[in-house]
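Action item from last week, closing it out:
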Amino acid sequence: MKDKKKILVCVDRLTGGGAQRVASLWINGWCKQGHDVSVVLSNVRTPITYDIPKSVKIYNIDYNIKNDYLRHLLKKSTEGIRMRKILDEVKPDVVVPVLLSWGKLLLKCKGKRNFKIVMTDHNTYERPSCSPMSKHNQYLKFEYNKNFDQVTVLTQADVDFIGDRLNNVTHLPNPLAFEPVDKIPSKKNTIIAVGRLDAGYCKGFDVLIRALGLCKKSDWKLQIIGSGSPSSTEKYKSLAKECGVIDQTEFLGFLDNPVQAYRDAAIFVLSSRYEGFGMVLIEAMSQGCACIACDYKGRQKEIINDDKYGLLCSPDDPEDLAKCINLMIEDEAYRKEVQENAPLRAKYYSLENIMNRWDDIFDKIGI
């Protein structure tokens, strides 16, 4: 194995959320490689639900007190002191923050301490005109990120878009959370989509529901998996009713483990107007779903890089999406071919392959 390293991961929690799940996978991967891994959390009330090796030491800069105002005040006023204490105890070779707020805190606390920082960015650097990035976020991405030893981005498309504006960028896709199936499970006439309803505009759930309304009537069901406020849920239910597909559409809410839903569904749709990577896309492919993805400027094309692995369509275009859904439903032979091929493509994103990329990053920063 590579030389043993002390790695400190900074993440808000180890439950829910795509970035949090990715962090848990990295932690397991590094432990399997024999590295010494510690974790700093910032939410003491949220239980850890992801599997974390017992060898991992868990710290928390939060306070377990009932008064929320006092809790927040104490956390903000003492987080620097607590982080410096953790850094002095762990003495990491490298710190991997998940979310930029951790990166800011680490830069304030670093002083003369000898560790590298690899900032992991989980969002796209390019946004459509219908949902522009704020000037503050542009500054953070293209200027503030220069302070870190390396910044990881999810796609080669983002590396190309960044160009020479940053010289410390590495392409690091997300790892696959599920083991790809060897045999395609029995499938139902179900189309699934996954994402938070409160982020529904980004996720394009309105585009998906409108596309379903344009499809030829059939016995196929649409299931949308993801948490959401009552107002968001009601908004999409109203749209489904307006489009005449309310009887075909189910809102399942958040599922702790959606793997069975992937195994049951014949088709998966990523309807996002823009997406940094599409972790749910590789998850669905790993379980033998025939996938359709709205491709935002080549980012999903990096995953579905051949039509034997799925179909791509234009984002924010219900008619184009409906055409792809109709094709996938009606051409059973093609659908089954895609289902057979999808898990093979998903293996490219295995944890082992992604951990090899981390080895390259560590070599690049000299640890």
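Closing note: The first helix runs from residue 18 to 33.
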